[in-house]
Structures are given as structure tokens and as C-alpha cells.
Amino acid sequence: MSVKQQATKHIELLSDDLHNLASRIHNNPELGSEEHKAVEQINSFLKDSQFEFGCGIDGMETAFQATHYQRSPGPTVALLAEYDALPSLGHACGHNLIAAASVGAAIGVGKIKENLPGKLVLLGTPGEENIGGKINMVTEGVFDEIDAAMMFHPSDQNVVGKSSLSCSSLEIIFHGASAHASGSPEEGINALDATIQTFNSLNALRQHIEDDSRIHGIITNGGEKPNIVPELASCEFNIRAPEDEYKDDLVEKLKKCAKGAALATGCEVEFNQPEPSYKAMRPNEPLVKAFKKNGESLGLEFQQAEGGAGSTDMGDVSQTIPAIHPYLSIVPEGTSAHTSEFRDAADSKKGKEVMITAAKILAMTAIDVLTKGSLNTEMKEYFAETAP
Ligand SMILES: [Zn+2]
């Protein structure tokens, strides 16, 4: 039996336990930074598996690093586990399956690790949806000694080399002057008017921005009462684009819309850029090919990768080291993540079967990184060539 077959066999034997792990995390949804139960469950799952478990990174209590002992020198490969849920919706992005797949892959490879060079690391990355935990981990140097990082994400398609959008947030606050809206409206400076004018200017701007870019927002404060001229109003936007630089240009354009609105209404304008800001995903092509080949050897078919409309903190990892963020289908095509349908699929028989397949493909791809010198050279060359 080849080492890949041995690893996938071990995952096969763990299937029921991994299904249970995915279901337990699904049934106890925890928001980013609060995923204590999920981390505890993963920690106890790793018992007796020769992983050294360390919890808490850069002040993030629910981040962890589990390192398998190293037998001989070689590359370091990281499998990434997310486990945060969404407010109200629960595990509607299927991060419970991401966690179980990476844990399964790590144990599968760990079981045969004495026959392999290099180092194997399982990283628990909290708060993908709200704090972008991986961004802190990049800053903290967690990825400095790692040669390749990988995970899978459930989706409505099997796609490997899909990119994601760079994303920043912008909060705009207008300060005006209150007055009685009927008694003395001429004394008021209307901050809500400035907010509405910002949306109108943005809507005109939309015709002149590049395809695949997105600017979407809400009014977060529109005043207190209809009979009071709003002295304070605010709105918040997400600004996304395929390239980090163009996204930054769009942020500046949106600020100009707001400054124009402030001038027109006589308001003062203030800007805040709430964290996190996600970088665009740069899928590493040699790793993409390796994952795809391993998936095809298990009978999967993959669709053509086209641009990505979402954003993820895996983008920041992919701008730091060679990385992939492949998608495997758990729902009919057209079913979107962050819906109740997707949440139910993340705890379905099909969802958990796909998770086992993902664990196997991740294990095989991790073995490729650990054992193939040529893949290591190619992924590093590709990373250097495509650096912005
Ligand atoms: Zn997600």
C-alpha cells in the first residue's frame, strides 16, 4: 500500500468519529473568538495522536497550534481548521466541516508520519467571519516557518483555484446641527441628507468601476425622530475588488463621495476603517494542480475556477506563503452559503461524506508537499513570480 493509501485508510477508519465531531461543532455554534467548546472537542479528539497541542495565539484564546513530532528534516505543511459560526444562522458557512476535514487529514498523515520527512502542523484559526483570526496569526509570525498551508471550504461547486476578493470596511460619520424640523429647519444642518447624498454619489460611481468590484453598505444611524433635524448620521460599507491596490483606490473614491456630500450639506465628515481588512486570495497553482489530481484519483470532477465574490482571511495567508482554499460541493448548484439551507447541509449525510473526501484529498496533498522536492520548488517559484 502506498503512503497515500495508508493515510486515506486511516481516515476511512475514523469516519464515524469525524462525522460526530462535525455534528457536535454544528450543534454547538459559537461566534468567532468564543469557540471554546469547538477547540476543546478538537483537543480531546487529538489525544493519543502524537500532536503537541498549544492553545492561545496573540491574545486569541481560541486559536491553537498542534504540532506532530518531526522524524527527519523536510518541509513544513499546515492544515487549517476554522470553527466559528454566524449570528442567528449557526453553522451556515459549514466551518464545522472545515474543522473536521483538517483534523481528519492531520490524523491520517500523522499515523504514517514516521515514514515521512518534514513537519506537520494543524492550526486552529478562529473568527474567520468576524475578526479574521488568520490575519493576526500572519502578523504574529505563525506562518513564518511553514512552507504550504491548505484547507477546504464547503460550497455548491467543486472548484480548486478560485480567488477571493480583497475587502475593507469604511464607516462614515456625518456631524451636522440639530434643530426643530418644522419650527426652525433653516437652523439645522442635516447629517442624514449627507448620508443619502453619499449613497447617491456612490450609485453614480458604480458605472465607472471595474467588473468584479463590489461596494455595498447600510445606514447605521439615520437620526432620532422625524421632528428633529439629524445632527449625527452614519453609514458603513464593505469595499471589495480582485486586487488589493484597486480596492484601496475604491476606498478613496468612496471617501470623495462622502466629502462631496459633506460640502453640499455643510456637515463635517469623519472616517473609520473597522478591522478586519482581508487580502485577495492568491491560489498557488502547483498546489492547486496537486489537490485537483488527488481529488480526481478519488473520482471527483472539478469545474473551471472563475473569479470569487466572497472574501476570506485565507487571502492574507496566501499572500504570505503558498496556500490553497479549494471548494467542494455539499449543496445543489446555486445554493448560497450563509443561508439556512446551507446550514442544514453542513450537518447532512452528504455534507459529512464530502468532509471525509476533503480530509483524504488534503492528506494526499500534504503528503505531496512533504515528499516531493519538485512540488516544493515549483510552488515557491510560482509564489515568487506572482508576488505583487
Ligand atoms: Zn466560510
Structure write-up:
The structure is a single chain. By secondary structure, the chain is α/β, with parallel strands linked by helices. The protein has two domains: 3-164 and 279-385, 3-Layer(aba) Sandwich (Aminopeptidase), CATH 3.40.630.10; 166-272, Alpha-Beta Plaits (2-Layer Sandwich). It has a six-stranded mixed β-sheet. Strands 8-9-7-10 form a four-stranded antiparallel β-sheet. A two-stranded parallel sheet has the order 6-12. It is built from twelve helices and twelve strands. The protein is elongated, with a radius of gyration of 23 Å. The protein has helices spanning 3-13, 15-27, 36-45, 95-111, 133-139, 191-205, 244-265, 285-297, 314-318, 340-345, 349-371, 373-385; strands spanning 51-57, 60-68, 76-81, 119-124, 148-150, 153-155, 166-175, 214-221, 232-241, 268-272, 323-324, 327-329. The longest helix has 23 residues, at 349-371. The relative contact order is 0.18. Helix 2 (15-27) runs antiparallel to helix 4, helix 2 crosses helix 11 and helix 8 (285-297) crosses helix 12 (373-385). The model has no long low-confidence stretch (mean pLDDT 95). 40% of the residues lie in helices and 19% in strands. The chain binds zinc ion (ZN).
